[in-house]
Amino acid sequence: MESELVVQNLTVRYGAVVAAEGVSFTVKPGECVVLLGANGAGKTSTLHGIGGLTPSVGTVRLGDVELGHLSASRRARAGLGHVLEGRHVFPDMTVAENLDVARPRSGAKPPVRPLELLPELKEHLNRAAGRLSGGQQQMLAIARAVAGAPQAIMLDEPTNGLAPKLVARTTEIIATLRDLGYAVLVVEQRLEVAQNLAADVLVLRHGHIVHEVNGTDPELPDLLHAAYLS
Ligand SMILES: Nc1ncnc2c1ncn2[C@@H]1O[C@H](COP(=O)(O)OP(=O)(O)OP(=O)(O)O)[C@@H](O)[C@H]1O
């Protein structure tokens, strides 16, 4: 996995609403970038624009491959993993079946097997995914993304609604993905996730990147506070 994710001048509009404008950043392999910002700042729209789930203009490149003209499914096949907000597992399929259908037809193997990364899923392999707890469904959603043998992984609010212990576990999994060499892009509401990951943080406000700092920067809480209020 040596592909960097490059986003240049990405703009996402919904009719007259400009959700993200001129957004540019790079996520290198083995690096984690976290998008923080208030509700409506444009975080999910940015991820959806990159993933091809919503129309956008600008450049999205993964390694040498231009993704901008590709459908969402082709972007996934090109190596862009996307863990959507809200977990999106197939509720009537078992955990094992959810993982099976996520495997790429190319036969490409991920650097870590999903169940090695998330051994807590092993005891639930024969359960319907819809019967798992919210936290377990989040783990399965991440495992599905890994099963797809991506180069880069985007996660949209992966800790949303999770108990503190599971927030910590999810943060640990994101750190492992980064350390395995994936380019990891995370949308978060929780400052402590970015701090604990010591990630590069992009603060979004009204669809624009207004700050770019490390998660450990002591000024980050104040910068974020100001961006939330303005
Ligand atoms: N499908 C849509 N149609 C019209 N406007 C939309 C749509 N989706 C998002 N928006 C608007 O685009 C802007 C950015 O929304 P977005 O969901 O990307 O922000 P966000 O930072 O992810 O917020 P949240 O944390 O609440 O998910 C907001 O003004 C929102 O109302």
From TrEMBL:
Gene Ontology molecular function: any one: ATP binding
Keywords: Amino-acid transport, ATP-binding, Nucleotide-binding, Transport
Keyword Hydrolase recorded: no
The ABC transporter domain, residue ranges: 5-229
SMART domains assigned to the protein according to its UniProt record, in alphabetical order: AAA
Source taxon at top rank: Bacteria
Keyword presence, Transmembrane: no
Stated family: Belongs to the ABC transporter superfamily.
Record protein name field: Urea ABC transporter ATP-binding subunit UrtE
